[in-house]
Amino acid sequence: MLPACVTHSSPPSASYSFTLSGDLQVTGDTLHVRLDPASAPRRSNALAALCVELTDTATRYPGTDLTLAYNIKGHPDTA
User: Which long-range contacts (CB under 8 A, 24 or more apart) does 36-44 make?
Assistant: First the structure.
């Protein structure tokens, strides 16, 4: 399992963080970071939007030719 810590801030003075499990999978030249869904759908939806943004950067994992792709398991926007 892969722990992921995410910090979210809403209003300027409010913030929180939480931990998600997940896994890594290499397919071809892509390293998939697959996070388990959050406990609340709104959190999974927010994370899915972040996953899309991060995947769109086409960032390479340092020291490799692997491109990072992020998703939330079972979420249609990141599948």
Answer: 36/72, 36/73, 37/72, 37/73, 37/74, 37/75, 38/72, 43/8, 43/18, 44/72, 44/75
CB 22 within 8 A of CB 33: yes
**C-alpha–C-alpha distance, residues 59 and 46, integer Å:** 20
Q: Are strands 22-27 and 15-20 parallel, antiparallel or unpaired?
A: unpaired
Digit-by-digit pLDDT tens for the chain (79 residues) are 555 555 545 555 556 677 889 999 999 999 999 999 998 999 899 999 999 999 999 999 999 999 999 999 998 876 6
Which of 18, 5, 2 has its CA nearest to residue 73? 2
Say what the pTM is.
0.75
